[in-house]
Amino acid sequence: MQTSARSSALWHPCTQMYQQDINPVPKIARAKGAYLYLDNGQPVLDGISSWWVNLHGHSHPAINAAITDQLEQFEQVILAGFTHSPIEQLAAQLVAVTLPPLTRCFFADSGSAAVEVALKMSLQFWHQTAGPQTVEPESGKPERNTFISLENGYHGETLGSLSVTDIPLFSSQYRPLLIQHLRAPTPDLSCKQHDQSDEEFLLQRFAQLQTLVEQHQDRVCAIIVEPLVQGAAGMKMYPPIYLTWLRQLCDAHQIHLILDEIAVGFGRTGTLFAHEQAGICPDFLCLSKGLTGGYLPMSCVMTTDKVYQAFYSPDVAKGFLHSHSFTGNPLAARAALASLAIFEQENTLQKNQQHIHQFKIKLAELASHPHVAHCRQTGMIAAFDLVQANGQPYPAVQQRGRLMAQYALQHGLLIRPIGNHVYFIPPYCITADEIDQMFAITSRAIDWAVSQSVSLAEASMPAMFNLP
């Protein structure tokens, strides 16, 4: 495979550039449907939706047309002091497709920024009000200044979002800058003991969270979680009942619930939003990645009228004084509107049920491989762990997952294992034959990766497979 010498000016994200200098990454020339095309013409099946963002396929004609049409009108306008039809329509559409009482939309430009907005809104709400039922600025609760997040959770890499992220690789260098928060044990089912049922394990983990809340309820603003799937931790999964209990706990102690659906929203879990499966609604819903169909940067925090009213005041200082230069960008808004329309026009969620069933079958086949363990699936997200013949994980230094990714790319498939955790999050336009191809290449990649000597496995591999 040909690779291009990188520009000396370019610093890639989430990448150890030392490794890229040794093994330059491939260059993409174009993309269409479920495929990326390298500059040498080789097609590569996009098994990860280009970092979990693309929904309907690359270069979708409806989204292309919407952006092109908007370009002929205007490309950007300040949203502080002005408004425009695309962003008004998008806010209305998002309210229409979510459960009550989410009726207010605040737009930002990235997933991390959305989490920052939700954290700041929750904190300021408590400083300005006595509780969800009362809007009395004189009776605020400034002692509420702490958040609870889950072990292994990931919520972004700006300082606020990183503070509630529990992945040391990302956060340890910046610990002196981060706000303090409380951490609850993960409900990830792969952590349960062999003699525990799923329910026993979940009840145990939830009881630990409940104790934490009871000990600190007077100073907790909100609990923030990734619903159903902890993505950057390695696609760790848990069932909807935990979210149901979590909503009840937050209600009992008057604590906000922030659901970070940045990765799992817009159909990834089988429903449009993951929290639908628990029959609940959060106080804050963070959306990004697939919001524009994977085309343009945009995020949104949806919240309730009760939260909105806590900021509604003649006093400017009581307002939510947070902004981004490109907030509500009309090009991104048109892309998002087109993406939402595609769900209805192409009957996407119902069609995805066929893919979900096929994933289940292919995962079951893969589970018999001696180097595969912990096969798991939530909707259109499927994952497994790469293990040694004795069932134990490979030492991280051997980088077997990255060896898999190298083999797969050479044979026309983009995957990006997180350590020993291998996952699939393809665009929804993927076909049954392409799903078969994806799993077949992956199976061969496992065989090749586990057959390599330790010295080769420990050598530097392409930097693009270094991190989540």
UniProtKB/TrEMBL annotation:
Q: In which pathway does it act?
A: Cofactor biosynthesis; biotin biosynthesis; 7,8-diaminononanoate from 8-amino-7-oxononanoate (SAM route): step 1/1
Q: Where does pyridoxal 5'-phosphate bind?
A: 111-112, 260, 324-325
Q: Which residues carry this modification: N6-(pyridoxal phosphate)lysine?
A: 289
Q: Which UniProt keywords apply?
A: Aminotransferase, Biotin biosynthesis, Cytoplasm, Pyridoxal phosphate, S-adenosyl-L-methionine, Transferase
Q: Which InterPro entries is this protein grouped with?
A: Aminotrans_3, Aminotrans_3_PPA_site, BioA, PyrdxlP-dep_Trfase, PyrdxlP-dep_Trfase_major, PyrdxlP-dep_Trfase_small
- EC number(s) per entry: 2.6.1.62
Annotated catalysed reactions? (8S)-8-amino-7-oxononanoate + S-adenosyl-L-methionine = S-adenosyl-4-methylsulfanyl-2-oxobutanoate + (7R,8S)-7,8-diammoniononanoate
Q: Which GO terms describe its biological process?
A: biotin biosynthetic process
Q: Where is this site: Participates in the substrate recognition with KAPA and in a stacking interaction with the adenine ring of SAM?
A: 14
Task: Report the Pfam families cross-referenced here.
Answer: Aminotran_3
Keyword S-adenosyl-L-methionine among UniProt keywords: yes
Obligatory cofactor(s): pyridoxal 5'-phosphate
User: According to the UniProt record, what class of enzyme is this?
Assistant: transferase
Q: What Gene Ontology terms describe what this protein does at the molecular function level? A: adenosylmethionine-8-amino-7-oxononanoate transaminase activity; pyridoxal phosphate binding
* Highest taxon in the source lineage: Bacteria
- Which residues does the annotation say bind substrate? 51, 154, 289, 323, 416
Cellular component GO terms held in the UniProt record: cytoplasm
Record's subcellular location = Cytoplasm
Q: Which protein family is it in?
A: Belongs to the class-III pyridoxal-phosphate-dependent aminotransferase family. BioA subfamily.
- Give the protein's biological function: Catalyzes the transfer of the alpha-amino group from S-adenosyl-L-methionine (SAM) to 7-keto-8-aminopelargonic acid (KAPA) to form 7,8-diaminopelargonic acid (DAPA). It is the only aminotransferase known to utilize SAM as an amino donor.
The subunit structure is: Homodimer.
- Descriptive protein name: Adenosylmethionine-8-amino-7-oxononanoate aminotransferase
What is the gene called?
A: bioA
